[in-house]
Amino acid sequence: MTLTIQTAPGSSGYLDMFPERRMSYFGNSYILGLTVTAGIGGLLFGYDTGVISGALLYIKDDFEVVKQSSFLQETIVSMALVGAMIGAASGGWINDYYGRKKATLFADVVFAVGAIVMAAAPDPYVLISGRLLVGLGVGVASVTAPVYIAEASPSEVRGGLVSTNVLMITGGQFLSYLVNSAFTQVPGTWRWMLGVSGVPAVIQFGLMLFMPESPRWLFMKNRKAEAIQVLTKIYDISRLEDEIDHLTAAEEEEQQRKGTISYLDVFRSKEMRLAFFAGAGLQAFQQFTGINTVMYYSPTIVQMAGFHSNQLALLLSLIVAAMNAAGTVVGIYFIDHCGRKKLALSSLCGVIISLIIFSVSFFKQSDASSDGGLYGWLAVLGLALYIAFFAPGMGPVPWTVNSEIYPQQYRGICGGMSATVNWISNLIVAQTFLSIAEAAGTGMTFLILAGIAVLAVIFVIVFVPETQGLTFSEVEQIWKERAWGHNSGWGSSSDSNNLEGEGLIEQGSRS
Q1: Whole-prediction pTM value?
Q2: Pairwise CA distance, residues 36 & 29, whole Å
Q3: How far apart, in whole angstroms, are the C-alpha atoms of residue 427 and residue 88?
Q4: pLDDT tens digits, residue range 67-96?
Q5: Major facilitator superfamily (MFS) profile domain: which residues (predicted)?
Q6: Residue 6 to residues 47, 245, 286, 509: CA-CA distances in angstroms?
Q7: Which residues contact 260 (CB under 8 A, 6 or more apart)?
Q8: Domains (ranges, CATH) in the chain?
């Protein structure tokens, strides 16, 4: 069945009528400043995931008990992921109840306190508590930044602006490698590495005090005057009227729905089940196709490939991080020109090829090779190709899609749930990669990841809609069509049962 979307004022149909009113990525300095400010949360996210690999080497030197205990080492690394899961799960509710701005300020405070605790930790157990706090801040920020940016962005540049947050994540990872290198000869090495992460949080806190609340959140909370004041800084007067009409229509539809949304409501509504399945599935596949395996263990992978020099391994890892950031810049351009779905599919096809190259290089490599050799360089080529394909597509697409596929009332809670799926998947991969590589062999491990990437291609084709250039209401219409096959409202479970009883519902999703 062909999907037909009825355009409304403020929609992409309006922009088709007046193409000269399309906004470019750099077309509004106000929205760009808001995006960069919110994106500092992504910088914190990326820095924290990257810095611990270098810091742990020096933590083991300072605390003998850590050196003697693999469990403590794993706990120091993974406690931030545990905190991020909790932060992401609760961050959706914080966003919906208190707003995007206050959620960001809260995340900054928690992160900064965690950074201070880590830097001053007298023993590994206090350090672990600091890692938990930092993780909580990162988790809330990982939910808030994409939603905040998306809700303030014009639809025609929303993908690129949300992807800027992903650029900040990859930039944070690159920065962490630079900081690790800079502090290797400084007394209190790891304390500086971990403590300096509080600086961006303090800077963001100060800047966010001057930033507005999300105009969509304000409008839905009946603070229309404040919302319009923000919108006047984003749109010109001719388009402003249409955007206000569009928000008013969305508000009326929201008022017809249940007032308070719970986690269970996501699974009671067929539209929301479809939307959440697509969003959470993308987040899971982002991790299970191996990106943080590559980022966490890139020095180890390089050494596995036969390059046993620590300096060379760290240098190649720095290059990998730089390529990841550069690839995200490419993604910012293509995500609003090629679309989310095409970008994800082309990215995954390249990832599959790269992982197969990885696998072949490790299968063929001789254990006697000490200087890398042909297959060692083939593994490094696979590493470079992997980042080159992953960074522009599967890096930004899951975060962008999750910021735009949920209706206003569900956006915070579903964004938090899908981010939690991402963090749980991240933890599973980080905790199992080396063990699986040891048991099955590195070549077989990368072949398994390639198989998962094939499943991801099928998933994107079947379950993920194209949202390029669509307004939020047009995206909602896609899920209505897929769920019910006609332009019905967002039904509750009881509404669904009634419709089913009347034989009006045609099962299955459509595209």
Answers
A1: 0.79
A2: 10
A3: 14
A4: 888 778 878 888 998 999 999 999 988 998
A5: 34-468
A6: 43, 15, 32, 19
A7: none
A8: 25-211 (1.20.1250.20), 265-484 (1.20.1250.20)
